[in-house]
Amino acid sequence: MNYKYLLSALLVITIFAMSCTDLASGPEKIIQFEIETEVATSEKASIIENVQNRLTALDLHAVKLVNQEQQKMTFSYRGNVEPEIIKENFSITGNLEFYEVCKQKAIIFKYLRSLDDAKTDENSEMEEKDPGEKLMDRLTTFASVINDDAPNLAEDFILGFIYKGDVAHIQPLLEKSSIRIPKIKKKVKFLLGKSTVKNQFLVYAVYVNSDEKAPLNGRYVTNAAAAEGYIEGYYEINIQMNPEGAYIWEKMTEKAYENRGNIAVVLDNIVHVAPTVTQGKITGGNTQISGSFTKEHANMLANVIQSGSIPKMKILKMGILE
């Protein structure tokens, strides 16, 4: 057998196959992002890696960074994915967090009423009222809706709800990374749940660590995949954590089980679920994010979580590389 001719034939076949792949995926394209928040230079390497991972998860290939300047970064890639799908995948940061839910509702309500009372006293001494200028004014709707007279919610881990049109009034409270409330030992922060069909948002209070961060987050995740949920037609996201994350998760669920507590699973600052731990501590680092996810949405979220979180970014341009 003439090995020289055989190797030549294999080389021709390989080059032909590569050419066919390039033709099938179309011309080389570019996408340019701009980071909308200030990030440290030391963080940019991981951001670039996570953006590449997210693009690759969309079945795009030959993804590479071709230019970077200040807050902007440009990538080239090959593949035929609808621009709207790419935009949807980069509309969320993929920031996954787990918090212990604060259930001391009576103390929280008293604190909110004290803010509302302070607002009322201040306005009574002002000749001209300027609603919206003071944080207390913005809390009026929040404090009046979330109180003992609000619709009876059986779940003691939910503070209450707020209508979509009133969210802007409590935005200053939601933007605080932590709040020290008298008689509560740990700092808390307020979060919204997903919007309901009635355009309402459930409101939660969760505990934060001394560094004002979640005790467990997405950097411990090693795998995320969509799977059929318990409710027919809906999907959930199965998550696997590394050993360090598994240990933290075991301790969190053990404490929640002993205290009949809840753990909020938060993605992009929105509480997706806040289940009660009823079966004891969870070992092995496995958990699920359930919800009314379609198969497509669950796959997208799984890819985003798997790829790693990125800061808030906007797409400046997409097109064929010239």
Features:
single chain; 322 residues; alpha+beta; Defensin A-like; Gyrase A, domain 2; seven-stranded mixed beta sheet; four-stranded antiparallel beta sheet
Question: What kind of oligomer do you see?
Answer: single chain
Q: Helix and strand string, N-terminal first?
A: HEHEEHEHHEHEEEEEHEEEHE
Helix content: 25-40%
- Quote the beta fraction: 25-35%
Total E-strand runs: 14
Largest sheet: 7 strands, mixed
CATH topology of the largest domain, by name, is Gyrase A, domain 2
The termini sit apart by 46 Å
Strand order of the largest sheet: 5-7-6-12-11-4-8
Count of helical stretches: 8
Low-pLDDT stretches are 125-154
CATH level-two architecture of the largest domain: 2-Layer Sandwich
InterPro entries: SecDF_P1_head
Pfam families: SecDF_P1_head (PF22599)
Protein name: SecDF-export membrane protein gliding motility-related protein
Domain SecDF P1 head subdomain: 211-311
